[in-house]
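Project outcomes to date are best conveyed with an example. Our students and postdoctoral researchers have been running inverse folding experiments weekly, and each run begins with a structure described purely in C-alpha cells. The record below, which covers 244 residues, was selected by the lab manager from last quarter's runs and is presented without edits.
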C-alpha cells in the first residue's frame, strides 16, 4: 500500500524589497543547513535595485547524507551524484512552494528562481518543471519562469530529462528559450565541479540553448564578488532591467 504523503513545514521567508521600480521577482534558495536570512543580506547588497528577492527557509527534516540527522533541506539527499536516487516527493514539494511564492506577483513582473548548492538544485529542478509544464508527480506547473540561476549545485532527475523534453514539442520550444546561468568553482570539495559540468551538459543535450556555464579557478563551496558580479550582469541583461 502507498505510504501517506509527507507534509513539509517550511521555515520563515525573508523578503528584500526593490529599491527602485519593481521589474522582476526572484525566489532565492539557500544551501543545506542554512536559512533564508543569510542570503537575504547578501542579495540586499547587490546593485540590482529593480529586483524583489524572496528568500524562503527550507523545512527541517532528517537528511540521509548526515545519517538521518535533521537539518534544513529542500529535499532528502544521501549522495551527491547523478546515480543517487532522487527524492521526487521532496523536490516536488519544494518546487511547488517556490511556485506558490511567485504566483501572486503582478502580471508585468518577470519571475525567476536561483539558489546556492542544494538551493541551486531546487532551482534547476524548477526549471525542468517549467519546461515540461508539470511536476514530477504529473500535476501541472503553474508559472512561467524568465530566468534560472544555479551556483555550486547539481541537476536532480538528470537521467530522464532529455527523453522527457524530446517527448513534447512544447517542452522543446520552452527549453530552447529559458535562460539559465550555472556557476561552479573548480575547487569545490562539497559539490564536485564535475557535477556542475555534467548538469550543464545534460541541459545542453536536452535542448536548453540559452544556457551559460561559468567556471571559477580556485573557488570552493562558497561565493565570491567575481561570481556575484557575473550574476548581476547576467540578470540585468536577461531580464532587461533598467540601467542595464
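After processing, the design step wrote out the following sequence:
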Amino acid at each position: 500500500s502507498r505510504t501517506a504523503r509527507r507534509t513539509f513545514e517550511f521555515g520563515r521567508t525573508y523578503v528584500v524589497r526593490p529599491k527602485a521600480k519593481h521589474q522582476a521577482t526572484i525566489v532565492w534558495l539557500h544551501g543545506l543547513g542554512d536559512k533564508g536570512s543569510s542570503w537575504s543580506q547578501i542579495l540586499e547588497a547587490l546593485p540590482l535595485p529593480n529586483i524583489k528577492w524572496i528568500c524562503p527557509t527550507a523545512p527541517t527534516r532528517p537528511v540521509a547524507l548526515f545519517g538521518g540527522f535533521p537539518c534544513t533541506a529542500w529535499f532528502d539527499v544521501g549522495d551527491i551524484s547523478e546515480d543517487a536516487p532522487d527524492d521526487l516527493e521532496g523536490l516536488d514539494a519544494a518546487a511547488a512552494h517556490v511556485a506558490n511564492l511567485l504566483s501572486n506577483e503582478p502580471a508585468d513582473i518577470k519571475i525567476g528562481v536561483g539558489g546556492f548548492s542544494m538551493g541551486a538544485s531546487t532551482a534547476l529542478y524548477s526549471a525542468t518543471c517549467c519546461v515540461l509544464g508539470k511536476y514530477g508527480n504529473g500535476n501541472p506547473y503553474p508559472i512561467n519562469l524568465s530566468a534560472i540561476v544555479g551556483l555550486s549545485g547539481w541537476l536532480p532527475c538528470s537521467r530522464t530529462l532529455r527523453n522527457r523534453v524530446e517527448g513534447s514539442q512544447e517542452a522543446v520550444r520552452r527549453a530552447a528559450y529559458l535562460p539559465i546561468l550555472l556557476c561552479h568553482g573548480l575547487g569545490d570539495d562539497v559539490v564536485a565541479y564535475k557535477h556542475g559540468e555534467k548538469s550543464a551538459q545534460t541541459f545542453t543535450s536536452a535542448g536548453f540553448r540559452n544556457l551559460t556555464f561559468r567556471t571559477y579557478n580556485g573557488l570552493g563551496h562558497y561565493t565570491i564578488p567575481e561570481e556575484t558580479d557575473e550574476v548581476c550582469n547576467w540578470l540585468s541583461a536577461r531580464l532587461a532591467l533598467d540601467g542595464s
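The chain has seven helices and nine strands. The chain has a mean pLDDT of 94. The training component of this project remains on track.
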